[in-house]
Amino acid sequence: MSTPLTVRVLGAGVSGLAAAHLLAADGHEVELVDERFTTPAVGTALGLFSPAQQVLSRLGVLEEVRSISAAPEVGTLRAADGRILATVPAGNALLVSRSELVRILLDALPDRVTTTRRRIEDVRPLRAGADLLVGADGVHSLTRRSGWPGRPRARSHGLTVLRGTTALEPPEISETWGRGWLFGITPLAGIGTNWFACLPEHRTSSPAEDLAHLRRTIGGHREAIDAVLDAATPQRTLIHGIHTAPPVWPVREDVVLLGDAAHAMAPNLGHGANTALRDALSLSLAVCGNAEVRRALHRYALRRALPGQGWRLGSEAVMRLAMTASTAALRDRVLSGSSARGS
């Protein structure tokens, strides 16, 4: 390895934790900065596919993650009336609680990673004395907004997401597309059911009222959905909008963006955590053995800019297809016809 670098990583989410671990394991001096260092209160599910699992293996945590994950073989995409529009193989994905994944990554940090609990309002001082600043600070990245031309902010899509967990055994593994709404059901090992819903923007100050609105909007369409909604509680429900990052080149001088800071995407393809983990590995490989930081970051960007933006654009396209209201009937006919021809 070349001369060890002094690295600051802003953000202790999936990408920041993985990057701090991998860079420290390569012998670099790493400081990880976050306001809280806490795990999410509601552990909704992440799907981790083979490339992300390879990163977890390199981090030495794959078997621990696998031991607390569900591994379904197949799920279905359904219309609001219950018709199967497509049967979707799971592709050897692991479904793991986001809270548990963050906890495992935190516990696995090498001792040489220094952790600093601090609220950051200006990223410029973080560059002082550091060879490399890693912005892993999420969709509303302060790093991106303060260091990139035009101060690019995340864009809202005018949608509300509700997601949660219940102790109910999942009645099925499915995603249902209605007219301007969707609802998904997956297993979550050790808990029961992970569920998620998306509908046009509607948020109040009361999670109970938001759940009630969801029940009024999509209740009565399918028994499986009704069963999950009956078991859902405000205490185990998260409510937020969908924001995506603008297209940006992920490096600037000696600063690099990872994960959602670089390419925050709609959740519809389930690849946000996967791209975050691949970003972290690609950064460590680019920096390893390359004494010139800016050259290493250029190498990283060539590897990761196109895949990250590709997943961002693809996820947004699927979101628009899933959430259409005016052409939902046509969408369902096309999908069900394609499924019938393929069977």
Automatic annotation (TrEMBL):
The keyword Oxidoreductase applies. The keyword Oxidoreductase applies. It comes from Brachybacterium ginsengisoli. Residues 254-284 form the FAD-binding domain. Keywords: Monooxygenase, Oxidoreductase. This is 2-polyprenyl-6-methoxyphenol hydroxylase. It comes from the Bacteria. Coiled coil: none annotated. InterPro entries: FAD-bd, FAD-dep_Monooxygenase_BioMet, FAD/NAD-bd_sf. It holds the Pfam family FAD_binding_3. One of its GO terms (molecular function) is FAD binding.
